Amino acid sequence: RPISPPQLASSEPLPDPEWFTQQLDHNNVRDSRTWKQRYWVSWEHFQAGGPVLIMIGGEGEENPAWLRAGALAEYAKQHGAAMFILEHRYYGQSRPTQDLSVKNLVWLSSHQALADLAGFIQGMNSQHNLTGPWVALGGSYPGSLSGWLRLKYPHLVAGSVASSGPVFAKPDFYEYLDVVDTALKSENTECSKSLATALGKISFLTSHRVGWSMLTKMFKLCKPFDGKDKANIATLAETLIGNIETVVQYNKDKKGFEGGRWRNITTSVICQMMDDRSAGSELQQFAEVNSLSLKMADAKCLDVDYSNKVSMLRNTNYEDPTSRVPGDVGNRPWFYQTCTEFGWYQSSSQDGHPFGETFPVDFFVKMCSDVFGPKFNKDLLERGIDITNTEYGSLNITVTNVVFVHGSLDPWHALGVTKDLSEDAPAILIDGTSHCANLYPESEDDPQGLKDARKQIGELIGKWIKGN
Using an 8 Å Cβ cutoff, are 47 and 131 in contact? Predict the structure, then answer.
């Protein structure tokens, strides 16, 4: 899912969006079709001849709040830079095609998105007579794009900040739940055990009709649970663990989740709930965590019906599903990118199966076929992943002037660069922080490692600008 924007202290109006005329297909010189890509610009800190910072959009709607708060605004202030935010093709209001039918998704890929960025940088240089160096920033999938932009277009960007960006594409991302398990154990050893016990009881209840009715009531399911279909069992377990995954992945970040109301819901709070035997059994407390998640999402019931998830993802208009879909893939275009380029399916295939075995990688691959058609199978996924890793180099990416930044408690660091590749491609692994923490506004209670990382990144940006 895309990272959420920072919460702003002031109510000052944000800049209006602007629109850039972009090529539909960068790989076909005979295709001259174009479309309008949304972007935002701020000259607030810009000094003539100065550098330009670009924040790369990802797998959802972009938000101009980053022009005011967080890393983009902070580094622009430090370096007298102009700021741009470019929304990714097929997300938000940047819509190259009428709809999201399979034939229209053929132009959706990281390769086309990087070419969009290259065309945009050249276009802005010429439109605004910009002569200073460009530096890219991105977090999560845009963190991957940020590093890859420097790899593919080093003449256009002087350097890149790649935050929480996975670079190793693979179908089965079982390591995700390994890191979640480690994060729970770092709170206390009982927390992970309580979760495993609750999931074991759920697994037993899915095996008989009386259990189905108990699960329906206990977890506030939108429709009576039907355990005859294995895909429903997988969806139930994956969705309930998803409640905890989301809290761990965004633990203590400064995104002002839901207008700041739920920022105090951390891994520690979830573990206290799971371990509180005076309040009820592990299963009852897991149901309480689910009730809290529903409240946070402002939802009345939990949708775990596999066929409903598939029909939401089959919807070809530009509307996001109304409830979480397996793997937290968020929306149809991002699910398409996982089925054709990346995989990254957060399966239950850990050693010893601490969270059961209900949602192996095949569950997600079957969902690709069910949503996009039978051609979208394991063979197609593996071919797409080979192309991704060959083109970008996976963990052996050879690049300069890129800093790879990860949090030790962010599950995505398991597929990212966490050790220096060279003097010119350092990695920063920030102890005890989660997803994209370094991009959010500073806070007094930030750990020292996070403060140091922000400072080091600011110095590197300065060095890249001077070196240019």
Answer: no
